[in-house]
């Protein structure tokens, strides 16, 4: 089943005559449950693409359909609901809220959506993340690897259709990187999640089902490496 459809996406930053064409007509589809690595040189448009897929940055033209819904045809309110329910975003620098503790950071997307926290399911999630003993800690009291685990929890708690990660291991040493990717893969398998990861790390890319290479705002290569 197709979960994501991207049609002729273009993104121009800046003025009409000047500025940058960050995406120059990108099209692809992703099946539900696929794990896709997005690779390519710095400045090639990967983050721009991911942000547009996540509903946080509007394209200049083109369409994004998630589970059949045309994301940029939605009004602001529907788009906000779409982001909360359908998208889990994971960033290189975690983007946790510094004044909220681990539990509060993880459960925030549910609460913002007016949903209740189920303590047993929360416990199950934090144990899988290895954060069972840390629920009351602030982000500043955690290591980078632990902070990234919190951000994975926050990305997953609302059971989004699509999980998007922008260099999730870019700030971590190789041991922590391996653990974070292991966690993302485990969740991807057990929850049948659709996962797109931007990475510079070839070892991570080779764990995906498929690698899409972006160069200069276009797809340079799109290769299925396992089914
Ligand atoms: P990547 O993630 O592959 O490094 P980006 O999507 O961040 O690439 O950037 C693609 C191009 O768009 C680059 O030339 C970058 O400088 C430009 N760009 C990205 N974000 C902005 C922005 N907010 N304003 C202007 N130019 C931007
Ligand atoms: P599952 O159905 O297997 O619990 P989901 O995709 O629904 O998986 O949820 C992802 C993670 O978020 C799971 O680990 C789940 O325990 C947790 N979770 C989902 N909904 C809630 C909730 N209402 N309260 C607390 N945790 C939740």
From TrEMBL:
A GO molecular-function descriptor: ATP hydrolysis activity
A Pfam family this chain is assigned to: ABC_tran
InterPro entries in alphabetical order: AAA+_ATPase (IPR003593), ABC_transporter-like_ATP-bd (IPR003439), ABC_transporter-like_CS (IPR017871), MacB-like_ATP-bd (IPR017911), P-loop_NTPase (IPR027417)
Residues annotated as domain ABC transporter: 4-227
Assigned keywords, A-Z: ATP-binding, Nucleotide-binding, Transport
GO CC field: membrane protein complex
Taxonomy, superkingdom: Bacteria
Family per record: Belongs to the ABC transporter superfamily.
Protein's name according to its UniProt entry: ABC transport system ATP-binding protein
Native source species: Bittarella massiliensis (ex Durand et al. 2017)
